[in-house]
Amino acid sequence: MASQCEHCLNYEFDEDYECMICTVDLDEDEMAHFITNTFHNCPYFLIDDEYQIVRKQN
What we know:
The chain is of the alpha+beta class. It contains 3 helices and 2 strands, in the order αββαα. It has helices at residues 2-6, 28-35, 52-57; strands spanning 11-14, 19-22.
């Protein structure tokens, strides 16, 4: 799970808590899976591809 989250656009650093958080509004069951590292095949996963815009310009 961690490796998938690390590459997701929804996984951001929160300066207030000083840690990485998921910015998606997860429901109670989804949050329980996220916290216990059992959240596989996340439906909210968005690949963090910083070169996507550059490829579209070509």
